[in-house]
Write a structure and sequence with these properties.
With 145 residues, the chain is an all-alpha fold. It has one domain (7-139). The chain has helices at residues 8-31, 35-63, 73-104, 108-139. Helix 1 runs antiparallel to helix 2 (35-63) and helix 3 packs antiparallel against helix 4 (108-139). The longest helix is centred in the middle third of the chain and has 32 residues, at 73-104.
Amino acid sequence: MSLSALPFPEINATLNGTATLLLTAGFICIKQHRIHAHRACMLTAFFVSAFFLVSYVTGKIVRGITYFDGQGFWRYLYLTILTTHTILAIIIVPLVLRTLWLAWHGDFPRHRAWARWTFPLWYYVAVTGVVVYFMLFQIFPHHGG
């Protein structure tokens, strides 16, 4: 099987959806003081997100860009979501790395302070990744042209 035969959009949406579920579970676990479960969820979310990044870049190299076919309100909504998603996806990488590094080194007061910013941004990026997929490939699929 060649790379071009892989369903990259579906793989990527699944990875983003999985990251969203793991982030949700990790948040619930920390609120319940289940530290080990929180750590497992967040580390798994990190690796799922890292795999997403590799898959996303590979998919763009192999298959190229897909254009949005929606018009009017839907086009503006899509572009707003895509723009905020993309900007925050770039910003979130060093935030996640720093937040994990602080936890890894046992600096939990600073970890919590960073996580207050990192978590909602990471969550937004994961959720909007799924939204972008649905808008691009399910609601307004590209028909060429």
